[in-house]
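Comment thread on ticket #2218

A.B. wrote:
> Attaching the input chain for the structure job we discussed in standup.
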Amino acid sequence: MGIEFRGVSKTYPDGTVAVAEFSCEVPSHRTLALVGTSGSGKTTLMRMVNRMIDPTTGTVLIDGKDVRSLEKVALRRSIGYVPQAGGLLPHRRVIDNVATVPVLNGVAKAAARETADGLLAKVGLDPALGRRFPGQLSGGQQQRVAVARALAADPNILLMDEPFGAVDPIVRRDLQDELLALQSELGKTIVLVTHDIDEAFRLGDEVVILRTGGVIAQVGTPQQIVADPADDFVRDFVGSDRAERTLRTVEMDGRRVVVDGDDRPVGVLA
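C.D. wrote:
> Ran it. Output below, let me know if you need it in another format.
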């Protein structure tokens, strides 16, 4: 399912403009990364898709259908959602957290739990962990459970709000790898919110860099943005002048080694 933001704006009663005239399309089976600092409207935009927030003006469409014409509860149950820090129910076992939406949709509990077992394995967890409570898992394990729960009803669309922001860098990298592998296999339409430009470049097929107030600074593939930043704001945001963005090759023992601007090795050129 494709998503289209058509001229959407969000102004709150106190006059705060969270998003201003935002238009963008997310093709089916692709990942759009919304990236920006606090106050850039990225989470507001993502929440317009499942009607947690309705735009003041403009329209959000899924496969050409205005989401405001859809019943909110049914819409939300049809879309996978991974909030910050997992958002798991602490008083329910992991397996029942994962099975929540299928059970709400009328799937028998035994069948939903069987599906949940398979999803835990798919996101890299031992299904035996399903018998534990969320508080008995590490932060990285909880985030994997949150992804499994979002996939439990086999949604076409997946919304991810800073999904890996609460874990350490090594676990974060592992979780990013898991998501890339899952997306390669499942081909969901994903809207990912992050403040980390490197995460946006790693996970997004297309990246939207937002200024404060939900104004688009640049839209493009990671390669396009790195190669041709739109202006100084984008150049600073992506760190175009950082040493790790400036790569070159050197010859070493007959091999071409890639080094950054500080001469630190990055890898070997194949």
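A.B. wrote:
> Thanks. Noting for the ticket: The first helix runs from residue 42 to 49.
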